[in-house]
Amino acid sequence: MYQENLSELLYSLFNTIPDPFLVIGEDGTYLEVFGGTDRSLYDDGKPMKGRNIYDFMPKEFADFYMQQVRRTLEMNCLNSFDYRLETGKVDLPEFNGPGGTQWFETRMFPLKTPYMGQRAVTAQIINITERRNLHNKLRELSYIDPLTGLYNRRYFLERVRIHLMEKGRAHIMLCDIDRFKDVNDQYGHLAGDAVLKEFAGIAKDVLKHNHAIARLGGDEFVMALTDMTDEEAFAMGESLRKQVEKTPFHYQSQVLSIRISIGIARLCYEDLEKSELIADADRALYQAKASGKNRVCLFDDSVRGL
Protein backbone atom coordinates (compact mmCIF):
# COMPACT_ATOMS: atom_id res chain seq x y z
CA MET A 1 0.00 0.00 0.00
CA TYR A 2 2.85 2.36 0.87
CA GLN A 3 4.55 1.63 -2.47
CA GLU A 4 1.33 2.35 -4.36
CA ASN A 5 0.86 5.65 -2.52
CA LEU A 6 4.48 6.60 -3.20
CA SER A 7 4.07 5.86 -6.92
CA GLU A 8 0.90 7.92 -7.05
CA LEU A 9 2.62 10.77 -5.22
CA LEU A 10 5.59 10.75 -7.62
CA TYR A 11 3.25 10.60 -10.62
CA SER A 12 1.33 13.60 -9.25
CA LEU A 13 4.54 15.53 -8.64
CA PHE A 14 5.86 14.85 -12.14
CA ASN A 15 2.64 16.13 -13.66
CA THR A 16 2.65 19.40 -11.73
CA ILE A 17 6.19 20.59 -12.49
CA PRO A 18 6.32 23.53 -14.92
CA ASP A 19 9.09 22.04 -17.09
CA PRO A 20 8.59 18.90 -19.21
CA PHE A 21 10.16 15.67 -18.00
CA LEU A 22 10.43 12.90 -20.58
CA VAL A 23 11.47 9.29 -20.86
CA ILE A 24 12.75 8.63 -24.39
CA GLY A 25 13.54 5.19 -25.72
CA GLU A 26 16.60 4.29 -27.74
CA ASP A 27 14.36 3.96 -30.80
CA GLY A 28 13.09 7.54 -30.42
CA THR A 29 9.72 6.76 -28.82
CA TYR A 30 8.50 9.14 -26.14
CA LEU A 31 7.72 6.52 -23.49
CA GLU A 32 6.61 8.99 -20.81
CA VAL A 33 5.71 12.68 -20.90
CA PHE A 34 5.32 14.46 -17.56
CA GLY A 35 5.05 18.08 -16.46
CA GLY A 36 5.35 20.98 -18.88
CA THR A 37 2.39 22.72 -17.28
CA ASP A 38 3.59 26.30 -17.83
CA ARG A 39 1.78 27.38 -21.02
CA SER A 40 3.78 30.61 -21.18
CA LEU A 41 6.84 28.46 -21.88
CA TYR A 42 5.65 25.19 -23.41
CA ASP A 43 3.01 23.64 -25.62
CA ASP A 44 1.19 20.68 -24.09
CA GLY A 45 3.45 17.72 -24.83
CA LYS A 46 1.13 15.00 -23.55
CA PRO A 47 0.01 14.01 -27.10
CA MET A 48 3.64 13.06 -27.87
CA LYS A 49 3.51 10.11 -25.46
CA GLY A 50 3.77 6.82 -27.35
CA ARG A 51 4.85 8.54 -30.58
CA ASN A 52 8.25 8.39 -32.22
CA ILE A 53 10.19 11.63 -32.51
CA TYR A 54 10.35 11.23 -36.29
CA ASP A 55 6.53 11.29 -36.41
CA PHE A 56 6.15 14.81 -35.04
CA MET A 57 9.52 16.61 -35.26
CA PRO A 58 11.29 17.87 -38.42
CA LYS A 59 13.76 15.21 -39.58
CA GLU A 60 16.80 17.43 -39.14
CA PHE A 61 15.89 18.13 -35.53
CA ALA A 62 14.98 14.49 -34.87
CA ASP A 63 18.39 13.38 -36.21
CA PHE A 64 20.12 15.88 -33.92
CA TYR A 65 18.11 14.87 -30.86
CA MET A 66 18.55 11.14 -31.39
CA GLN A 67 22.27 11.67 -31.77
CA GLN A 68 22.17 13.18 -28.27
CA VAL A 69 20.16 10.21 -26.97
CA ARG A 70 22.76 7.77 -28.34
CA ARG A 71 25.60 9.89 -26.98
CA THR A 72 24.02 9.93 -23.51
CA LEU A 73 23.62 6.15 -23.52
CA GLU A 74 27.20 5.66 -24.68
CA MET A 75 28.71 8.11 -22.13
CA ASN A 76 26.46 6.76 -19.35
CA CYS A 77 26.40 10.15 -17.63
CA LEU A 78 24.60 13.51 -17.66
CA ASN A 79 24.49 15.22 -21.06
CA SER A 80 23.35 18.87 -21.21
CA PHE A 81 22.90 20.77 -24.48
CA ASP A 82 21.10 23.81 -25.89
CA TYR A 83 19.17 24.09 -29.13
CA ARG A 84 16.75 26.24 -31.08
CA LEU A 85 13.35 24.94 -32.14
CA GLU A 86 10.76 26.37 -34.52
CA THR A 87 7.75 25.31 -32.47
CA GLY A 88 5.35 25.84 -35.37
CA LYS A 89 7.04 22.96 -37.23
CA VAL A 90 6.21 20.44 -34.51
CA ASP A 91 3.23 18.23 -35.38
CA LEU A 92 0.91 18.74 -32.40
CA PRO A 93 -2.90 18.57 -32.34
CA GLU A 94 -3.01 21.95 -30.61
CA PHE A 95 -0.57 24.82 -30.11
CA ASN A 96 -1.11 26.45 -26.74
CA GLY A 97 2.40 27.57 -25.83
CA PRO A 98 4.40 30.72 -26.61
CA GLY A 99 4.86 29.88 -30.30
CA GLY A 100 7.59 31.03 -32.65
CA THR A 101 11.28 30.29 -32.25
CA GLN A 102 12.24 29.13 -28.78
CA TRP A 103 15.55 28.11 -27.20
CA PHE A 104 15.70 25.11 -24.90
CA GLU A 105 18.18 23.30 -22.71
CA THR A 106 17.90 19.54 -22.30
CA ARG A 107 19.44 17.74 -19.35
CA MET A 108 19.57 14.11 -20.41
CA PHE A 109 20.51 11.15 -18.22
CA PRO A 110 20.60 7.39 -18.97
CA LEU A 111 18.37 4.96 -17.08
CA LYS A 112 20.27 2.09 -15.49
CA THR A 113 17.71 -0.53 -16.42
CA PRO A 114 15.56 -0.95 -19.56
CA TYR A 115 12.23 0.90 -19.61
CA MET A 116 9.33 -0.72 -21.41
CA GLY A 117 11.72 -3.22 -22.91
CA GLN A 118 14.45 -0.91 -24.24
CA ARG A 119 17.30 1.29 -23.16
CA ALA A 120 16.11 4.80 -22.43
CA VAL A 121 17.05 8.21 -21.12
CA THR A 122 15.29 10.80 -19.01
CA ALA A 123 15.20 14.33 -20.41
CA GLN A 124 14.36 17.48 -18.49
CA ILE A 125 13.47 20.33 -20.89
CA ILE A 126 14.02 23.96 -19.83
CA ASN A 127 12.94 26.95 -21.89
CA ILE A 128 15.96 29.30 -21.87
CA THR A 129 14.70 31.78 -24.49
CA GLU A 130 14.42 34.70 -22.07
CA ARG A 131 17.79 33.92 -20.51
CA ARG A 132 19.45 33.67 -23.92
CA ASN A 133 17.86 36.92 -25.16
CA LEU A 134 19.03 38.70 -22.02
CA HIS A 135 22.54 37.31 -22.44
CA ASN A 136 22.64 38.48 -26.06
CA LYS A 137 21.32 41.90 -25.07
CA LEU A 138 23.94 42.29 -22.34
CA ARG A 139 26.65 41.15 -24.75
CA GLU A 140 25.46 43.65 -27.34
CA LEU A 141 25.37 46.44 -24.76
CA SER A 142 28.96 45.64 -23.80
CA TYR A 143 29.94 46.42 -27.40
CA ILE A 144 27.96 49.67 -27.80
CA ASP A 145 28.99 53.23 -27.01
CA PRO A 146 26.06 54.56 -24.95
CA LEU A 147 26.30 58.14 -26.25
CA THR A 148 26.38 57.60 -30.03
CA GLY A 149 24.88 54.12 -30.34
CA LEU A 150 27.92 53.08 -32.40
CA TYR A 151 30.03 50.08 -31.54
CA ASN A 152 33.01 50.58 -29.27
CA ARG A 153 36.72 49.92 -29.79
CA ARG A 154 36.55 46.37 -28.47
CA TYR A 155 33.86 45.24 -30.90
CA PHE A 156 35.40 47.10 -33.84
CA LEU A 157 38.83 45.53 -33.47
CA GLU A 158 37.26 42.11 -33.03
CA ARG A 159 35.33 42.53 -36.30
CA VAL A 160 38.40 43.84 -38.15
CA ARG A 161 40.46 40.85 -37.07
CA ILE A 162 37.74 38.47 -38.25
CA HIS A 163 37.49 40.31 -41.59
CA LEU A 164 41.26 40.18 -42.12
CA MET A 165 41.28 36.45 -41.42
CA GLU A 166 38.48 35.90 -43.94
CA LYS A 167 39.30 38.45 -46.66
CA GLY A 168 42.93 39.36 -46.10
CA ARG A 169 42.71 43.15 -46.51
CA ALA A 170 40.87 46.30 -45.48
CA HIS A 171 41.38 50.02 -44.89
CA ILE A 172 41.17 51.70 -41.50
CA MET A 173 39.84 55.26 -41.44
CA LEU A 174 40.44 57.20 -38.25
CA CYS A 175 38.50 60.46 -37.75
CA ASP A 176 39.02 63.25 -35.25
CA ILE A 177 36.81 66.31 -34.79
CA ASP A 178 38.91 69.43 -35.22
CA ARG A 179 39.03 71.85 -32.28
CA PHE A 180 36.54 69.76 -30.34
CA LYS A 181 37.92 71.11 -27.08
CA ASP A 182 36.89 74.61 -28.18
CA VAL A 183 33.29 73.39 -28.59
CA ASN A 184 33.27 72.03 -25.03
CA ASP A 185 34.96 75.12 -23.60
CA GLN A 186 32.68 77.60 -25.38
CA TYR A 187 29.31 75.86 -25.32
CA GLY A 188 29.67 73.16 -22.65
CA HIS A 189 29.98 69.38 -22.67
CA LEU A 190 26.34 68.85 -23.61
CA ALA A 191 27.06 70.68 -26.83
CA GLY A 192 30.05 68.43 -27.36
CA ASP A 193 27.85 65.37 -26.85
CA ALA A 194 25.36 66.72 -29.40
CA VAL A 195 28.17 67.15 -31.93
CA LEU A 196 29.40 63.60 -31.37
CA LYS A 197 25.91 62.15 -31.85
CA GLU A 198 25.27 64.18 -35.00
CA PHE A 199 28.63 63.19 -36.46
CA ALA A 200 27.84 59.52 -35.78
CA GLY A 201 24.63 59.89 -37.79
CA ILE A 202 26.46 61.52 -40.70
CA ALA A 203 29.13 58.80 -40.71
CA LYS A 204 26.47 56.08 -40.84
CA ASP A 205 24.71 57.82 -43.73
CA VAL A 206 27.90 58.22 -45.73
CA LEU A 207 29.41 54.78 -45.13
CA LYS A 208 26.14 52.81 -45.16
CA HIS A 209 27.73 50.10 -42.95
CA ASN A 210 26.80 50.59 -39.33
CA HIS A 211 28.77 47.52 -38.21
CA ALA A 212 32.01 49.04 -39.55
CA ILE A 213 31.86 52.26 -37.53
CA ALA A 214 32.92 52.69 -33.91
CA ARG A 215 33.70 55.39 -31.42
CA LEU A 216 37.17 54.94 -30.00
CA GLY A 217 36.62 57.45 -27.23
CA GLY A 218 36.51 61.21 -26.82
CA ASP A 219 36.10 62.74 -30.28
CA GLU A 220 37.82 59.92 -32.18
CA PHE A 221 35.93 57.57 -34.48
CA VAL A 222 37.15 54.67 -36.57
CA MET A 223 35.73 52.98 -39.67
CA ALA A 224 36.63 49.84 -41.59
CA LEU A 225 36.46 50.15 -45.38
CA THR A 226 36.34 46.84 -47.21
CA ASP A 227 36.93 45.85 -50.83
CA MET A 228 38.38 49.23 -51.78
CA THR A 229 41.54 50.46 -53.46
CA ASP A 230 43.63 53.19 -51.87
CA GLU A 231 42.01 55.68 -54.22
CA GLU A 232 38.50 54.55 -53.37
CA ALA A 233 39.24 54.64 -49.63
CA PHE A 234 40.64 58.17 -49.96
CA ALA A 235 37.55 59.23 -51.92
CA MET A 236 35.32 57.82 -49.17
CA GLY A 237 37.24 59.83 -46.61
CA GLU A 238 36.82 62.96 -48.71
CA SER A 239 33.07 62.32 -49.02
CA LEU A 240 32.75 62.11 -45.25
CA ARG A 241 34.90 65.20 -44.67
CA LYS A 242 32.93 67.27 -47.19
CA GLN A 243 29.58 66.11 -45.80
CA VAL A 244 30.60 67.18 -42.31
CA GLU A 245 31.95 70.48 -43.63
CA LYS A 246 28.66 71.42 -45.30
CA THR A 247 26.38 70.21 -42.50
CA PRO A 248 25.25 72.75 -39.86
CA PHE A 249 25.47 71.17 -36.40
CA HIS A 250 22.73 72.36 -34.07
CA TYR A 251 22.80 72.72 -30.31
CA GLN A 252 19.86 74.54 -28.76
CA SER A 253 19.81 77.92 -30.55
CA GLN A 254 23.42 77.61 -31.68
CA VAL A 255 24.56 76.52 -35.14
CA LEU A 256 28.07 75.09 -35.03
CA SER A 257 30.49 74.72 -37.92
CA ILE A 258 32.35 71.43 -37.53
CA ARG A 259 35.39 70.12 -39.40
CA ILE A 260 37.18 66.79 -39.21
CA SER A 261 40.60 65.38 -39.97
CA ILE A 262 40.99 61.84 -41.30
CA GLY A 263 43.85 59.37 -41.47
CA ILE A 264 43.59 56.23 -43.61
CA ALA A 265 45.84 53.17 -43.69
CA ARG A 266 45.70 49.88 -45.54
CA LEU A 267 45.71 46.63 -43.57
CA CYS A 268 46.54 43.14 -44.80
CA TYR A 269 46.51 39.66 -43.29
CA GLU A 270 50.06 40.03 -41.94
CA ASP A 271 48.93 42.99 -39.83
CA LEU A 272 47.06 40.56 -37.57
CA GLU A 273 50.39 40.07 -35.79
CA LYS A 274 50.51 43.77 -34.88
CA SER A 275 49.49 44.73 -31.36
CA GLU A 276 47.74 47.87 -32.61
CA LEU A 277 45.76 47.64 -35.82
CA ILE A 278 45.00 51.36 -35.98
CA ALA A 279 48.59 52.59 -35.46
CA ASP A 280 49.24 53.48 -39.12
CA ALA A 281 45.89 55.24 -39.47
CA ASP A 282 46.75 57.19 -36.32
CA ARG A 283 50.02 58.31 -37.90
CA ALA A 284 48.14 59.44 -41.00
CA LEU A 285 45.65 61.31 -38.79
CA TYR A 286 48.53 63.07 -37.05
CA GLN A 287 49.83 64.11 -40.46
CA ALA A 288 46.39 65.51 -41.39
CA LYS A 289 46.29 67.50 -38.16
CA ALA A 290 49.82 68.79 -38.59
CA SER A 291 49.08 69.86 -42.17
CA GLY A 292 46.34 72.27 -41.15
CA LYS A 293 43.37 70.07 -40.20
CA ASN A 294 40.14 69.53 -42.21
CA ARG A 295 41.82 67.15 -44.60
CA VAL A 296 42.34 63.47 -45.44
CA CYS A 297 45.76 61.82 -45.40
CA LEU A 298 46.61 58.33 -46.62
CA PHE A 299 49.40 56.53 -44.77
CA ASP A 300 52.54 56.01 -46.83
CA ASP A 301 53.67 52.41 -46.37
CA SER A 302 57.23 53.37 -47.33
CA VAL A 303 57.68 55.32 -44.10
CA ARG A 304 56.57 52.49 -41.82
CA GLY A 305 59.17 51.86 -39.17
CA LEU A 306 60.96 55.17 -39.68
Task: Report on this structure.
The protein has 306 residues and is α+β, with helices and mostly antiparallel strands. It has 2 domains: 2-135, PAS domain (Beta-Lactamase); 143-303, Alpha-Beta Plaits. It is 39% helix and 26% strand. The strands form 3 sheets. The protein has a 6-stranded mixed sheet with strand order 6-8-9-7-12-13, sandwiched between helices. Strands 2-1-5-4-3 form a 5-stranded antiparallel sheet, with helices on both faces. Strand 8 (213-217) and strand 9 (220-225) form a beta hairpin. Helix 6 crosses helix 7. The longest helix is centred in the middle third of the chain and has 19 residues, at 189-207. The radius of gyration is 29 Å and the shape is elongated. The model has no long low-confidence stretch (mean pLDDT 89).
